[in-house]
């Protein structure tokens, strides 16, 4: 029990995670949605890549271990990583 109290005080894995604001940008034919998440006083790089394919909306969610001190920095890093993933993998990210 004492361990749970310490974890909650110091941002351990049992601490609640708070979602931040989402930011979306268009890149090629993809929509990148940055959704940083607050975790232990830092912001975790998190988001989605989406693409409309006819009637179907394809979506790829990813969460990175990377954390940054600010929400904006985490959103910018997610967008940078998503663009790199799109350039390297294209539509295969949805497989």
Structure notes:
It comes from Roseibium alexandrii (strain DSM 17067 / NCIMB 14079 / DFL-11) (Labrenzia alexandrii). This is Transcriptional activator HlyU. Pfam families: HlyU. It is built from two helices and six strands, in the order αββββββα. Residues 1-14 have low confidence and may be disordered. It is of the alpha+beta class and 95 residues long. The longest helix is centred in the last third of the chain and has 19 residues, at 71-89. It starts with a helix and ends in a 6-residue tail after the last helix. The chain has a single domain (17-94), classed as Double Stranded RNA Binding Domain (2-Layer Sandwich), CATH 3.30.160. Helices cover 29% and strands 42% of the residues. It is elongated and about 40 Å long. It has helices at residues 2-10, 71-89, and strands spanning 18-19, 23-27, 30-34, 37-39, 42-53, 56-68. Strands 1, 2, 3, 4, 5 and 6 form a six-stranded antiparallel sheet that branches. A hairpin with a 2-residue loop joins β5 and β6 (56-68).
Short key terms for the protein model shown above:
95 residues, alpha+beta, Double Stranded RNA Binding Domain, six-stranded antiparallel sheet, 2 helices, 6 strands, disordered N terminus, Transcription_activator_HlyU
Number of helices: 2
By CATH reckoning, the class would read Alpha Beta
Strand content: 35-45%
Rg over alpha carbons: 16 Å
Architecture in CATH? Answer: 2-Layer Sandwich
What is the straight-line distance between the termini? Answer: 42 Å
């Amino acid at each position: 029990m004492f361990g749970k109290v310490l974890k909650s005080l110091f941002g351990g894995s049992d601490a609640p995670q708070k979602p931040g604001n989402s930011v979306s940008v268009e890149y090629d034919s993809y929509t990148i949605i940055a959704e940083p998440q607050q975790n232990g006083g830092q912001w975790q790089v998190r988001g989605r890549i989406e693409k409309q394919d006819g009637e179907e909306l394809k979506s790829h969610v990813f969460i990175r271990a990377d954390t940054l001190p600010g929400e904006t920095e985490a959103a910018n890093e997610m967008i940078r990583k998503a663009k790199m993933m799109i350039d390297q993998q294209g539509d295969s990210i949805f497989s």
